[in-house]
Amino acid sequence: MIQLLRASALAAFALCAGPGSAQELPAPTGETLLTVTGAIARTNDEGAALFDRAMLEGLEPVTIETETIWTEGPQTFTGVSLARLLDELGGEGETLMATAINDYAVEIPAGDVVEGGAIVAYLNNGEPMSVRDKGPLWIVYPYDASPDYRTEAIYSRSIWQLDRIDVLP
């Protein structure tokens, strides 16, 4: 049954999806993991874009391997790039306000929203992340790719237990 729901959600998302499309997003069929609000053009719930896991998985998954200051050894993270997510929603802003389930919030400048940059990870080493293990969503940068990603500023933007993003103009 879960596979059928996932397939249905992906099919619905694929029909409505398309970068910058003015169409509304399909409604999530599973538990909402991420809510995006603010300066976005595509929504599915009164000015917000709600995503379940299947919808996030349908947005061209990206996998990066990197070490982090919070884990032991190289880790493999899979998720959707922030750039792809905002492109899908027609998001245009100067800052992202990313907020965790415990209301911890951090500002991410638009300059961080680049292909090959940060992702909204939903898998760590091929497994969904529990709340206890920094999940279900974690903004992860490719820390090993450049010294620019190994700074206190970037580490502070690597918010785990992410559940909301507000795109600020």
Q: What is shown here, in short?
A:
Residues 1-22 form the signal peptide. Helix content is 20%, strand content 29%.
Strand content: 25-35%
Q: Low-confidence segments, ≥5 residues, pLDDT <50?
A: 1-21
- Class based on secondary structure composition and strand pairing: alpha+beta
Terminal Cα separation, in Å? Answer: 41 Å
Domain Oxidoreductase molybdopterin-binding: 75-142
Protein name: Oxidoreductase
Signal peptide: 1-22
Keywords: Signal
Report on this structure.
The protein is of the alpha+beta class and about 170 residues long. It has a single domain, classed as Oxidoreductase, molybdopterin-binding domain (Sulfite Oxidase, Chain A, domain 2, Alpha-Beta Complex). Helix content is about 20%, strand content about 30%. The protein is built from 4 helices and 10 strands; from the N terminus they run αββαββαβββββαβ. It has helices at about 1-15, 55, 80-90, 150-155, and strands at about 35-40, 50, 60-65, 75-80, 95-100, 105-110, 120-125, 125-130, 140, 160-169. The strands form 2 sheets. It has a 5-stranded mixed β-sheet. Strands 3, 4, 7, 8 and 9 form a 5-stranded antiparallel β-sheet that branches. A hairpin with an 8-residue loop joins β3 and β4. The longest helix is centred in the first third of the chain and has 15 residues, at about 1-15. It is globular, with a radius of gyration of 15 Å. It starts with a helix and ends with a strand. Mean pLDDT is about 90; it is low at about 1-20.
Element layout with pairings:
Layout: H1 2-16, E1 34-38, E2 49-51, H2 53-57, E3 62-66, E4 75-81, H3 82-89, E5 95-100, E6 105-109, E7 119-124, E8 127-128, E9 138-140, H4 152-157, E10 162-168
Parallel strand pairs: 1-10
Antiparallel strand pairs: 1-2, 3-4, 4-7, 5-6, 5-10, 7-8, 7-9
